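Progress note, project year one: complex with iron/sulfur cluster.
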Amino acid sequence: MGKSLEDIFRRLFDHFGPQKWWPAESQFEVIVGAILTQNTSWKKVERAIYLLKQEDRLSMEEIHKIDEESLGILIKSCGFFRQKAKRLKDFVNHIFIEWGGSLEDFLNQPMEILRSNLLRIKGIGQETADSIILYAAHKPSFVVDRYTHRIMFRHGYTSQRYRYETLRSLFMSELPKDVYLFQEYHALFVRLGKEYCGKIPRCHGCPLQEDVI
Ligand code: SF4
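Model obtained:
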């Protein structure tokens, strides 16, 4: 194991600069993006969000009203579109039934309660829940994804088989609970994974090159 997690962040930030995630115009748009991006690329999600906006469907009320099949057609570009249409509807139905339709009240819950409530909604896994908490609710819950694991594994911080919660706890315990730091850190890991640390690592020129084990 090499540098501290703060050192790693500093090197990534110095190399890539601020990433300013999440690219969305509203809290609800962040949530829709977080659900649609499961197992697919962001490019495909952008297409779906564009269509939802064009059809004036990107709101809680409209997703509540639209039937699953019509919603599926609008988000078809994302793959698993029937399943994702159901997930979007399930999320929105939960907010209408249990929170009187107030997304703001739902997101204003204390972080750990919000997290466990999100994980109770069918189709919301840990990564999606943490993305929603961090980028829509603006609360400091670290997001772990396959890039996080790959980079941390290659630098000796975790084993090849890992538990999401264990890796998340490492960041949660070692870093200050700072929303901006967590938002940038996750975005920087995604950038690093895409540009250098893919399935085959391209260590030459990578900002973490000196630390590879
Ligand atoms: S590309 Fe190499 S140096 Fe960069 S993060 Fe991956 S393993 Fe580390």
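Residues 151, 154-155, 192, 196-197, 201-203, 206, 208-209, 212 surround iron/sulfur cluster (CB under 6 Å).
The chain has twelve helices and no strands.
No further modelling is planned for this target in the current period.
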